[in-house]
Amino acid sequence: MAIxxxxxxxxxxxxxxxxxIVGRLFRRVDVxxxxxxxxxxxxxLRTLGLGAAIIVLVSDVAKGVVPVLVGRFVLDDPWxxxxxxxxxxxxxxxxxxxxxxxxxxxxxxxxxxLAMAPIxxxxxxxxxxxxxxxxxxxSLMSVLGVAVGFAVLVGLVVTxxxxxxxxxxxVLAFLWVELNHIDNIKRLLAGTEPKLGQGGARRTSGxx
Length: 208
Fold this sequence. Notes:
The protein is an all-alpha fold. Helices cover 70% and strands 0% of the residues. The protein starts with a helix and ends in an 18-residue tail after the last helix.
């Protein structure tokens, strides 16, 4: 029962899309019609500016934090916490409240890491910051940062510092983030990926 509660709570909270809400409030636009077509921090920054993007970033991180904390301290079940975190990322990526068109799940993944394994979250944040500072590619930051965080999580589970159930979250979140960035990886290899703050034009029907 606790696992089912965690699943439902995580998915429903994850499905709330601050990017869409802020877009409507700030400029009466759907941010999915611009830039990458996603609802997260990067596309909000491109479309609406830094203030709106920060609101979205904090909200998306909170979507990962809250379900995991509920799973850990209210439901008191590590498996429920792991499922809740994974469900929150799934909800962000494929939200029932927004036609199953959301974001890529990076900020929500970080929030779940933060509530589940603060050490992994700190390492993830440090690695991400270093990559962004060196390259200004948010996509590369996301791909490498989450990979590093996942590696630390695996290490903590293997050494007994974390419950083995958290590994389920790590595997699912890692795969979803990496798969959601396949197009970005192709553009990085081709040298056409926009850097931080670039690429906010309105999308066409065939836009990527």
